[in-house]
Amino acid sequence: MVSVESPPVERAAAPAPRVKLLKTEVSRRTAWILRVASVAVPFAIWWAVSGSGIVPDRFLPAPPQVWAAFTDMVASGDLQNDLLASLGRIGAGFGLAILISVPLGFLMGTVGWAQPLFEPIIGILRYLPASAFIPLLIIWLGIGETSKIALLVLGVVFFNTLMTADVVRQVPRRLLDVSATLGAGRARVAARVVFPHSLPGILDALRVNAAVAYNLVVVAELIAATSGLGYRITRAQRFLQTDKIFAILIVIGLIGLTIDVTLRVVRARVGRWSV
């Protein structure tokens, strides 16, 4: 009797394992809860520690003390004057850095000879701490506004130049080829293709470096200044007024957040097409 072998039974393929993405989306409600918690939890810890008496008030003032110090500075007008002085220096220094770094970075990203000419020296200078130039700036420019603005320029211009050049070099080659095929000249391609495509990335670089300028202006005002938020912190430190220091630090953080959100909104509007 001949035995007939049954055909092998094919097993169903095991389902592919689900891979969790590194970036997952959360609901809008969850996102807002997390945002509120990121502020509320540290604030609650601060209030609890300061109210427990573990740390003396002169070292860690309670939130009501900080609020009282804030209202006192607002009532006297000192906070408004110092804030305007700091913002004026940021506007001048950061604006001048933009006027230098964006054209230079655009040149390095579009013209072949510009990158090997400028990148080595800029790459060296960007690793020099801007604060290390403070003694030289005081010697060269004095203790007035010029040295403070120059410090902001030095702290921003080199980084922003290289970041702008990197963004410009990322323009897809096919866009340049299509433009050349349609008869566009180099100047027209740079103005109508390269710059619009690079603008969202340039704004991202400015948003990052705006934080650098904002931090440096406080550093500049800690030394040889008669106005500004950094000067007000130094003055409060002399008299151990930690409540005023905390109030000024919170104002610095809120103004910095406002600048960041503003640049984010501008970037989102001009770069809706980009991911």
Automatic annotation (TrEMBL):
Membrane topology per record: Multi-pass membrane protein
SUPFAM superfamilies reported in the protein's UniProt record: MetI-like
One annotated GO biological process: alkanesulfonate transmembrane transport
One Pfam family of this chain: BPD_transp_1
Record keywords: Cell membrane, Membrane, Transmembrane, Transmembrane helix, Transport
Transmembrane segments annotated in the record for this chain: 32-49, 90-112, 124-143, 149-168, 212-233, 245-266
Signal peptide boundaries: none
Domain ABC transmembrane type-1 intervals: 83-267
GO cellular component labels: plasma membrane
Localization, UniProt: Cell membrane
Similarity annotation: Belongs to the binding-protein-dependent transport system permease family.
PANTHER family associated with the record: ABC TRANSPORTER PERMEASE PROTEIN MJ0413-RELATED, ALKANE SULFONATE ABC TRANSPORTER-RELATED, MEMBRANE SUBUNIT
UniProt-recorded name of the protein: ABC transporter permease subunit
Source organism phylogeny: Bacteria, Bacillati, Actinomycetota, Actinomycetes, Streptosporangiales
